[in-house]
Amino acid sequence: MAQIKTIELSEKTATLLDCKKMLDGCFDKLGEIQNDMFGYSRDFESKLALAYTEMHGLIMELLVDNIDAMSTESKYKVI
């Protein structure tokens, strides 16, 4: 039988994970609204993708830094 191990997340880490989920939902919804109102636009999709990539990168950077800072006692390292 496989052993399940868990780690406790800090409140800030959990909040950042929630931000990532909200970001995904927001950009999905923006794309849907654009398509419904005006149809597909390659220019809009490109702008949306660039904005998403930038925001996603910022969230992930904060998330990694937060997990690294909070995990020093447990000797876990984000790779």
TrEMBL record:
Protein name: Uncharacterized protein
Superkingdom classification of source: Bacteria
